[in-house]
Design a protein that fits this description.
alpha+beta; Rieske Iron-sulfur Protein; four-stranded antiparallel sheet
């Protein structure tokens, strides 16, 4: 059998339509469809990011973000404001607090001394009522939990840092300000790390036990 084109049987020849490129209008249609999809995605992302500005507080917007009015912010160092189940949901309640000017904290009401423990609800108490339970004189409100290490009373300052009774601070939500609104991201939990004792550097005498 010959190898030249004219030697091949006619039924093996490719038809002329096989040499035609994809019509230009189909290429334009594909590009237009991709651009339309991209535009829709951009619009959806933009609307979701601006949603906190459109709603009436309190409200939860896409991204599991709770929007509160700035009027909900407690005064500096004042008693934390509880944002409860009717707004945040039964499992996501928190205390909104302002330890210093312009510094906002959203401290979760549920806490455990260790990550895998069941834990319990934290409370707010005035330091004046705690008396001798305080390791040092303190004024103003504090957070406390009855489920500290070995069931001791655990105390925390308004930033959620440990004062006594535990090696782990309070868990918090990511919180920010946008104009006259407070935005609490309920999907972003900042988990407190357990505090451990630092190793003694070489060259420093080790403490001696008393016989």
């Amino acid at each position: 059998m010959g190898t030249r084109h004219e030697d091949q049987p006619a039924e093996h020849w490719a038809g002329p339509e096989s040499l035609d490129p994809t019509p230009v209008w189909k290429q334009y249609l594909l590009v237009a469809a991709l651009l339309a999809v991209g535009l829709v995605v951009i619009v959806v992302v933009a609307v979701a990011s601006l949603a906190p500005q459109f709603v009436t507080p309190p409200a939860v917007v896409p991204g599991d973000r709770l929007v509160l009015s700035a009027s909900e912010i407690p005064a500096i160092g004042a008693r934390p404001r509880l944002v409860g189940a009717e707004v945040a949901g039964a499992q996501r309640s928190f205390y909104l607090v302002q330890p210093a000017r312009g510094e906002l904290r959203a401290v979760r009401t549920h806490w455990a001394a260790f990550a895998n423990d069941v834990g319990c609800e934290i409370q707010v108490e005035e330091s004046a009522s705690l008396g001798s339970q305080l390791p040092q004189p303190t004024t103003g409100p504090l957070f406390l939990s009855p489920c500290g290490v070995r069931n001791a009373l655990a105390l925390f300052d308004l930033r959620g840092a440990v004062i006594s009774g535990s090696d782990r601070g309070l868990d918090q939500y990511l919180v920010s300000m946008s104009g006259d609104r407070v935005i609490v991201n309920l999907s972003r939990v900042i988990e407190a790390q357990e505090r451990t004792s630092a190793p003694i550097p070489p060259g420093i005498p080790q403490p001696q036990s008393t016989p």
